Write a sequence for this structure.
């Protein structure tokens, strides 16, 4: 008998690559299970994917969810999550968790921030209390959270930014990743690198080369989807992924519109997270294969068809547009639950279908077929 | 081979009766399954038990839920529910439904109501539009809803009321039940009678005798839990149930505090409904075997025990007080979901345990033991 090869933690195995695009299908191994890529990661900001219990996320086979370090640090705080035994135990989720660094929220939510090479000082958007995030502190918080994938502190540039500003900012981000690696002790946790560089192709290339040399278990592309036009985002991404190592997963932060999945996987992206599916759901808008469906629209009052007839989720298999419309018109909590169920399932399933098309060698055809039927 | 005896629709079979109290355990047969009594019926006002999907209600084995005719008539309206094929199909619930008459809501929610022998004119609490409920109209609405148990229109007296007022009101309620029976055509639907009579024992007796003579499939006790002291409620109930037929289920409308289950089952009540478990849950208060648990209380910040350690519900088996407190402090929808899960399960399970104690002949002992451990 031969002993099976031991699976190495944080190993990324590419199972298939598209011959006509940069798309690939892989498996990333974490301490809480295998992640089949490309993958959509539902956002669980405050220790809950808004409106959904963990059992439903398991039912729809979500393998990894995201937690926000900034939010969890402020509420309930690391003392509570630490004493609970980490975020997995606190929220009763035994599959994988990725935590961001909090950097994006500090730069987008928190007032009165002050950035130096040491770190960033900011005030809580909840109670105005002052806090300091350093690369070391952010690593420490995420080690207490005990996530499977951690992100280093980086500076998120606003759009648009001048090149000299982007260049100086990139220096800080690179300085900080080195300090993050030095501070990081938790072996079961993969610390990714984050590529920055604004919308400048040469800076992106420089950032990729710098990060690649650090031989991290995965790389995130940050600083995109921050207000720039879609074509600028795609051009920047196109100029970024060729400079990333082939054998490491690539995570595009904060992106997750149905069309984005196709255009960004085509450019070599493996992982996505986005609040769009959950946020839109709570506002009564469903993602469907035909485009957005606004449930409060009067035309659905007597529409007893499934929200998305091609969808196999709990909501679409059991409820009608007329019923969902009624729930939203009446302000019923169940509306948020059922709409979130659908939107999260839809996003997970769509990316799974894309993965399948890569394995079967027909990703470009699947993309074309999807885009033909879809309009927003 | 002998053919099994055909089960008669709306048959009520008493399986066991307590020898020391009026408590009994029975089975009421409906077109959507058997109801094991005593039973707690979760309230699903607008075609949803607030915050819970039907699959979870099935998981906790709720056999019957309540819908509110007044609310459903206004939103989404009988046209929508009628075209959906009835309330069961509209909300995807294939177990039993009881609908009230809307009378209670007209008298408690709607402004500018005007009562005559013909019926009651009122304005919608949502848009001020004018509507008329007559006994015939209310039967017709409930036939469109297609509930398994329907309630006739009755007049709900405020507390306190003078005796002559209660007497006149009772006349109207009795007149209306006769008209309701005449209008009722849906055989699969059981039309119950409602006992009124204020807090006057002789009027209650009179109402019971009048209703009993109509040989209806079940009887509700109305006009209680309307602001009177608890001992007045229990005295009135004590003076009511002996005058109701033994072989028909007895439904106490709007009552469902944990202690009420014991004191009212002891007086011969079989069915309960109450918004308390669901409403308290959304406000962050849990029902437990020890009494109320207010989740936002600071003492639960680092309390990693189950909300109710003796409870087998999804929430108590998987989450801690500290986590639930966090969800409520952060205003997360999942808090309302998990708290509702627990409170509805708790109420269902408690009444099921009472049923079991009646079957085993130790209801008084179970009551004593529960009350010893419980304080509010």
């Amino acid at each position: 008998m031969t002993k099976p090869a031991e699976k190495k933690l944080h190993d990324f195995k590419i199972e298939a690559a598209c011959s006509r695009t940069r798309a690939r299908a892989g498996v990333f191994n974490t301490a809480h299970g295998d992640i089949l890529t490309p993958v959509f990661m539902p956002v669980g900001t405050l220790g809950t994917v808004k409106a959904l219990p963990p059992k439903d996320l398991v039912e729809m086979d979500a393998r990894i969810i995201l937690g926000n370090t900034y939010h969890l640090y402020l509420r309930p705080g690391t003392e509570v999550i630490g004493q609970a035994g980490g975020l997995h135990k606190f929220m009763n989720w035994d599959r994988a968790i990725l935590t961001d660094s909090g950097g994006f929220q500090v730069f987008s939510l928190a007032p009165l921030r002050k950035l130096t090479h040491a770190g960033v000082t900011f005030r809580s958007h909840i109670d105005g209390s002052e806090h300091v995030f350093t690369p070391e502190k952010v690593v420490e918080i995420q080690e207490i959270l005990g996530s499977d994938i951690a992100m280093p502190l980086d500076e998120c540039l606003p759009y648009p930014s001048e090149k000299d500003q982007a260049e100086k900012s990139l220096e800080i981000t690179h300085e900080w990743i080195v300090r993050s690696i030095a501070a990081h002790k938790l072996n079961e946790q993969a610390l990714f690198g984050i590529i920055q560089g604004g919308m400048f192709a040469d800076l992106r290339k420089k950032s990729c080369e710098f990060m690649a040399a650090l031989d991290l278990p995965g790389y995130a592309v940050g600083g995109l989807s921050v207000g720039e036009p879609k074509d600028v985002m795609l051009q920047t991404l196109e100029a970024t992924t060729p400079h990333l190592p082939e054998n490491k997963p690539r995570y595009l932060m904060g992106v997750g519109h149905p069309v984005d999945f196709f255009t960004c996987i085509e450019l070599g992206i493996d992982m996505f997270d986005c609040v769009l599916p959950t946020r839109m759901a709570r506002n009564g808008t469903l993602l469907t294969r035909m485009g957005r469906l606004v449930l409060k629209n009067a035309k659905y009052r007597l529409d007893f068809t499934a929200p998305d007839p091609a969808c196999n989720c709990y909501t679409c298999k059991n409820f009608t547009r007329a019923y969902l419309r009624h729930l939203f018109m009446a302000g019923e909590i169940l509306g948020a639950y059922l709409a979130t169920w659908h939107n999260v399932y839809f996003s997970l399933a769509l990316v799974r279908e894309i993965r399948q098309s890569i394995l079967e060698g027909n990703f470009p055809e699947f993309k074309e077929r999807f885009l033909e039927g879809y309009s927003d």
